[in-house]
Specification:
Elements lengths: L1 E3 H13 L22 E3 L8 H12 L8 H16 L4 H10 L4 H15 L4 H4 L3
Antiparallel strand pairs: 1-2
Helix pairs in contact: 1-5, 2-5, 3-5, 4-5
Length: 130
Amino acid sequence: MTIPKSLAGLVLAAALCAPLAACTSPQAPEGPEFPSQTATAVVEDGPGLSDADLFLTTARAVAPALEAVDDSTLTDLGESVCGAFDAGATTALVAKTMLGSGMDATQAGAVVGAATTTLCPEHESAARGQ
């Protein structure tokens, strides 16, 4: 299974930052020297790989600094993102909360993107602001 890093890293970080108008995403020009801005994280989808394992692997592939956060805490954070969307929170509110907790935009985007693609995919479009 291939999970696009751009989903959580670029699109969601931009979506999370847009309401705050404080972030910009540098754009590399397309062409022979810059074939693509889309990076991928390859996650083996083998037996026994739970949604929580996929969440952890995906979030940490996009934001390696999340390696410093223990599995239980990071999973709880992902589940709280799902709970916030379940309760009707907007992307702007989730972004403000995540960024206010000390996470940078990449980490926040990684957690929200990984959570909404693995733990609560029913909120994937909400996380994108759609």
